[in-house]
Amino acid sequence: MFRLARALPWRxxxxxxxxxxxxxxxxxxxxxxxxxxxxxxxxxxxxxxxxPIRLAWDGRDVLVGIPSGTGPVRIFRLxxxxxxxxxxxxxxxxxxxxxGLSRLRRGAWCLGLAATLWATHVVTVxxxxxxxxxxxxxxxxxxxxxxSPNAVWAGVAIDPxxxxxxxxxxxxxxxxxxxxxxxxxxxxRHCWRDAYVQRT
Length: 200
Fold this sequence. Notes:
The protein has helices at residues 2-7, 10-48, 87-97, 103-139, 149-153, 160-186, 189-199, and strands at residues 54-57, 61-66, 74-79. The chain has 200 residues and is mainly α. It has one domain. Strands 1-2-3 form a three-stranded antiparallel beta sheet.
């Protein structure tokens, strides 16, 4: 037990904890501005998918608009914390904690991973709005007022139930798995070799 404790990479773990705490506090300050950058690309993605759903940002929440024929647009308010995740915070903290990287390589990995996660968040916001609309239609009584589901889902290639499953799978294991893969790729080989030697 004591050998295992001595072999643990305490310095990287401490750096990860400190960096994670810093980025979490920073995230609380910039989250609204970050989510605002997702709305335009998410709308273009929804339009490309053939759905009339459109998103807007009111400075606090994501607004989902559904046209209802000749009537007014039906508006849903979604708390953005339900749509975006803190994997960006964990990813940047992880990259700052990895030992043995040059500043140039560390910066390149941070920018590349941040851009990748931003793209996944665009998809998540789009898929999350589709999921919310699907749940709304499912809650309507038979013959209830509102836009026809067929009008909203016309042209959408993916069934809304599958969208729910994909969001759940991404949140539960795919997103954490991505960070583990990045860690395996970024950590220099000699660090893995040194850690193995210390444990044996």
